[in-house]
Design a protein that fits this description.
The chain is α+β, with helices and mostly antiparallel strands and 296 residues long. The chain has three helices and nine strands.
Length: 296
């Protein structure tokens, strides 16, 4: 009986030892599994963080390009992808690190969005390059237009100046003016009261640049009191966009050569003593101006 108890005790001891050994190995195995799981969870957390960082980087890229693009259609496409990317980023943030399938799907979405982003970015770059070329061409066109305008303005000024020179050169010039009081027999007189006519001698100078042909020269006599001497108030001619009175006029044929001529004023009024003014006009220009005196 005692021997049986020893055997039973030995068997129980062996069983207990075996169980202890099994528990020890089980505990070690569990710890190894937990360590492996912890390592996998850490790797999945790291991968999730990487994917999230990629989404955030993409968000910055989108913000940079959508703020610079001027094309409305392309802006709308980029903005749509930007909204989608933010939705995916928010979805990733609430996804557990252990949900490998969900994270994998989100990575695929990220790859799809990035592909579209690259495509749109290439379009943006192409448009920017085209706009840069157009801007350069536009600047060059404006520069050439300004240069051409400046040249035209310069030529216009030169033409205007040349026309002015030509006009001045073509303008007739009256010189050699002299005045003689005449009596009733057309003889020179020094008697103020016997003056019946006033004789005005003048010379139209030679001018080969002036337009030849039939011309009219007007003489405008002004008394000492600044009144114009006229025979008829209807005797007017055009000068500086208005009609003014003349005292005498004479038609003549001009060939470009010098012409000496004379006009007569018949005295029908009471003459004033003092300084008179004689002005000659032709072709709308004042061509000569002289003073003369009548003394008692």
């Amino acid at each position: 009986m005692k021997k049986n108890n020893v055997i039973i005790l030995s068997v129980l001891s062996a069983i207990i030892l075996a169980l202890l050994i099994a528990v020890f190995f089980l505990i070690n195995r569990t710890k190894e599994k937990e360590a492996e799981i912890a390592e996998v969870v850490e790797m999945m957390n790291f991968e999730k963080q990487q994917v999230e960082r990629e989404f955030q980087d993409m968000a910055s890229e989108f913000d940079g390009y959508t703020s610079n693009i001027k094309n409305d259609s392309l802006f709308k496409l980029l903005d749509d992808q930007k909204v989608k990317m933010h939705q995916l980023l928010e979805e990733l943030r609430v996804t557990k690190s252990t949900n490998a399938r969900k994270i994998s799907d989100l990575k695929k979405e990220l790859a799809s969005v990035r592909k579209l982003l690259v495509h749109y970015v290439n379009q943006i770059d192409a448009l920017n390059a085209e706009n840069k070329v157009l801007k350069t061409e536009n600047t060059d066109v404006k520069r050439r237009y300004n240069e051409a305008s400046e040249t035209v303005n310069q030529l216009s000024k030169e033409k205007e100046s040349l026309n002015e020179v030509v006009t001045r050169a073509a303008k007739l010039d009256v010189t050699g003016f002299s005045f003689s009081p005449l009596n009733s027999r057309n003889k020179k007189t020094s008697w103020f009261t016997q003056t019946a006519n006033l004789q005005f001698n003048y010379t139209v100078n030679k001018n080969i640049t002036a337009q030849p042909g039939e011309k009219t020269i007007y003489l405008r006599l002004t008394r000492p009191d600044d009144e114009v001497m006229i025979k008829n108030s209807g005797n007017v001619f055009a000068f500086e966009n208005k009609n003014i009175n003349y005292s005498l006029k004479k038609d003549f044929e001009y060939t470009g050569e010098s012409i000496k001529d004379v006009m007569y004023w018949k005295v029908e009024e009471v003459l004033q003593a003092g300084t008179y003014r004689a002005e000659f006009f032709c072709d709308g220009n004042r061509v000569g101006s002289f003073n003369f005196d009548l003394k008692k």
